[in-house]
């Protein structure tokens, strides 16, 4: 609810029921008008361009009616209603957090000692509340398990179908991670893998990865996940200059392991939005190409920061570990969470299948559920 509104030709100042005040420019209000001539009633898409708004747009009247705001724009002589709740959701008048390397609202960073968030296959498939909670965990923590699933090949595709679509790559719709202990072929080794993000040589990278366990009778081979955002926070706090180097200069990544494939990217290991929010991590020693975009006089300091970030990531205190059983899977935000694997010993086999998907599909599904199924959280 709004208490009052004052205006001049260039802006409106409103007071909410709680006593807070906010200002909105005339051009901003006109561009975001909610009337059916400006926004399509069905999907909310804008029907006008910026060029359709008069350059001389101004406000001739602004008043509170039934707790909402009515604004009249000139020279169109057009009156539009803005709900108080909508205005409260879109306030931009105030101090904005510009801390370099800050974490977005709704994201929780973590390290060892955190319980892996988990959902039950049957419940997530059947109940909106369970599905919403599982999707929320992925959005907040960057990873989550799914237990109690079937053990048929390609079951991982049903996981992707919960929220979106498989992103097919040169590896196909999905790929095999089939490793045997005491193998007859070195392709099926039980060697451990350092924590890494997948496919950093792509632009854009696949933003989600799903790994689904079909067999796991081997000793060892635990999965480990590391929060790259928490690692970046630690580097930022311990070595701000090193953080700035890894965020300020592109690294290079490359993959050309098969005929007809030569994937290359030029992106920083720590990626920030233009206003300083931490939005991505790319870290993969196996796919790293020579760094050639860092000035000569800064290269040694860059490598020192790279080493320090790697030491933070490799610290056992950073990792959450678990062993996947047949029918279990986990999903990771590949722009944030690194995954690793311990080596094997003894006898047995380990067969996983993996695929990629896109985070925008997951976030879209979650946002739609939050709008249409608020009871799912209860």
Automatic annotation (TrEMBL):
Its cofactor is Fe(2+); L-ascorbate. The keyword Transcription regulation does not apply. Pfam families: GBBH-like_N (PF06155), TauD (PF02668). One of its GO terms (molecular function) is 2-oxoglutarate-dependent dioxygenase activity. CDD domains: CAS_like. GO terms for biological process: carnitine biosynthetic process. Residues 118-356 form the TauD/TfdA-like domain. Residues 8-87 form the Gamma-butyrobetaine hydroxylase-like N-terminal domain. Keywords: Dioxygenase, Iron, Metal-binding, Oxidoreductase. Belongs to the gamma-BBH/TMLD family. NCBIfam families: carnitine_bodg (TIGR02409). This is Gamma-butyrobetaine dioxygenase. The lineage of its organism: Bacteria, Pseudomonadati, Pseudomonadota, Alphaproteobacteria, Rhodobacterales.
């Amino acid at each position: 609810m709004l208490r009052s509104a004052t205006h001049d030709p260039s802006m409106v100042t409103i007071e909410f029921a709680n006593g807070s005040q906010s200002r909105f420019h005339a051009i901003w209000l006109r561009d975001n008008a909610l009337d059916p001539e400006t926004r399509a009633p069905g999907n909310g898409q804008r029907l006008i361009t910026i060029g359709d708004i008069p350059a001389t747009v101004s406000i001739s009247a602004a008043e509170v009616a039934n707790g909402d705001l009515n604004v009249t724009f000139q020279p169109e002589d057009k009156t539009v209603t803005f709900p108080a709740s909508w205005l409260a959701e879109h306030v931009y008048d105030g101090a904005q957090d510009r801390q370099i390397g800050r974490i977005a609202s709704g994201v929780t960073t973590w390290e060892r000692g955190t319980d892996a968030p988990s959902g039950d296959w049957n419940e997530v498939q059947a109940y909106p509340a369970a599905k919403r909670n599982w999707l929320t965990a992925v959005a907040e923590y960057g990873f989550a398990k799914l237990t109690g699933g079937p053990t048929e090949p390609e079951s991982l595709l049903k996981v992707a179908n919960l929220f979106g679509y498989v992103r097919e790559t040169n590896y196909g719709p999905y790929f095999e991670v089939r490793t045997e202990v005491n193998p007859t072929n070195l392709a099926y080794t039980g060697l451990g893998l350092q924590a890494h993000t997948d496919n950093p040589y792509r632009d854009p990278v696949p933003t989600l990865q799903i790994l689904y366990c079909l067999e796991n009778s081997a000793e060892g081979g635990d999965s480990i996940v590391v929060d790259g955002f928490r690692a970046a926070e630690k580097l930022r706090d311990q070595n701000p200059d090193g953080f700035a180097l890894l965020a300020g200069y592109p690294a290079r990544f490359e993959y050309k392991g098969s005929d007809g494939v030569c994937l290359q990217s030029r992106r920083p290991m720590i990626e920030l939005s233009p206003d300083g929010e931490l939005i991505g991590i790319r870290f993969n020693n196996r796919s790293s190409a020579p760094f050639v975009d860092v000035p000569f006089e800064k290269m040694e300091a860059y490598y020192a920061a790279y080493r320090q970030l790697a030491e933070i990531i490799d610290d056992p205190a950073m990792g959450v570990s678990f062993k996947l059983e047949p029918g279990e899977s986990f999903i990771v935000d590949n722009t944030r969470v690194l995954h690793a694997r311990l080596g094997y010993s003894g006898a047995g086999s380990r067969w996983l299948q993996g695929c990629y998907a896109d985070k925008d599909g997951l976030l879209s599904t979650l946002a739609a559920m939050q709008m249409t199924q608020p009871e799912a959280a209860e």
